[in-house]
């Protein structure tokens, strides 16, 4: 036996006995004594670090179409998108709103804290910020929005008197002409509760034993929904805030706390300008939050 063969047997013998080596040395691609590359099931294996991905998407303003495309490449990239990128998109679009939903109110001038978990998931919240769900009852399709404004001042108008302690962000209605030449316009709106599982609104729904809708699902997270109209929890201030015909309103809340609905908008005259002030709790503009959603398009795919 050659001297090289004897040395090889000594290395293998040492690794198998646990003295000074490891059995993995036998598999090394770099020769005896060189361990192989570590095998790991970590989600970041084989792709760039998630912080680098976040920086890349920040440079393109977290374009939702690009983010949807990346999420479809592989399960690993989808996992990173759901854990990091959709959250960063929400923070970049509506930092005060996200801070309020995840960590309570902020003192004036204070930087927002790192966001925690959000009920329903970050992709659902990102879709809610970016996507108008339209109105199925009026054959109005959903679409990406250019800019949406979410306000918790408006949200108070959608809460029954006994539920006024809840915090709810609601968007301004997105106006659509009804297809088929009808003379009416339909407004589609959406919103989200903070801490819905502990909210008075949910407690009222459970206390009334309100039934979940059989044919309607949340367009943002796919969960089942309650009809607030059927439960008798729609205050008159909601119609006034929206500028809608009374009684011609749909209003749903899902079990995750996402809100969506639509209404038939009343024709306004110059003397009707005060409808927006009813039930809103006064002028509280510092509590409002504008969510800029530039970068979407009508042909884009919504956050899945």
From TrEMBL:
Q: Which domain of life is it from?
A: Eukaryota
Residue ranges with Acidic residues bias: 283-292
Q: Which residues form the F-box domain?
A: 52-91
Disordered: region residues:
1-37, 273-304
Q: What InterPro entries does the record tag this protein with?
A: EID1-like (IPR040267), F-box-like_dom_sf (IPR036047), F-box_dom (IPR001810)
Q: Name one Pfam family in it.
A: F-box-like
Q: Where is the composition biased (Low complexity)?
A: 13-26
Q: Which PANTHER family match?
A: EID1-LIKE F-BOX PROTEIN 2-RELATED, OS01G0802600 PROTEIN
| Protein's name according to its UniProt entry | F-box domain-containing protein
